[in-house]
Design brief:
Layout lengths: L1 H8 L10 H5 L15 E3 L4 E3 L3 H9 L7
Antiparallel strand pairs: 1-2
């Protein structure tokens, strides 16, 4: 029961209590992003389109078919 008292005595933080380090931190969006390929799926043929060769090799080695 003494352990539960720890939680009851804890101060609940509010937005005014924000640590200086937290308020100074700013997270930016991604930078230097490139869109090198677009992978799709052809429903009629039942196969992926636009796969990089290295991905095709990975799928083949993992026994996942990408061609039918």
């Amino acid at each position: 029961m003494a352990k539960l008292g720890f939680f009851a005595k804890r101060k609940h933080r509010t937005s005014d209590d924000t640590d200086v380090r937290e308020s100074a931190m700013e997270i930016s969006g991604p930078t230097n992003v490139t869109h090198d390929c677009h992978v799709g799926f052809d429903m009629e043929k039942g196969m992926f389109t636009g796969l990089p060769v290295s991905w095709e090799h990975w799928l083949k080695n993992a026994n996942i078919r990408s061609d039918h």
